Amino acid sequence: LFPIIHHPNMKRHMKALAALAGIKDNLCYHQARHSFASLITLEAGVPIETISRMLGHSDISTTQVYARVSPKKLFEDMDKFIKATEDFQLTL
């Protein structure tokens, strides 16, 4: 799906991006994957199944390690759920 960037090139790109963002710590490859999965795609509403394919995972449980749901996303999704179910009637 995306071109493969070799590890040394990825490190160089990450170092340049960190400098632009004013980040003084060294960034690692896994931080980039976590950021991509959680902050960039999941926060934008991309389904986890799609994120899994983007990261090249064959098992979605691997993606779940990288993709963390933020409190903001949790509240947004809960609001969607409440709006979608406000007309439901419980009958016993």
From TrEMBL:
Q: For this chain's UniProt record, which GO biological process terms are given?
A: DNA integration; DNA recombination
Q: Which UniProt keywords apply?
A: DNA recombination
Q: Does the keyword tRNA-binding apply?
A: no
Q: Does the keyword Transferase apply?
A: no
The Gene Ontology terms for molecular function here are:
DNA binding
- SUPFAM superfamilies xref list: DNA breaking-rejoining enzymes (SSF56349)
> From what superkingdom does this record's organism come?
Bacteria
Tyr recombinase domain sequence ranges: 1-79
* Protein name per the record: Site-specific integrase
Q: Which organism is it from?
A: Bacteroides muris
Ranked from the top, the taxonomy reads: Bacteria, Pseudomonadati, Bacteroidota, Bacteroidia, Bacteroidales
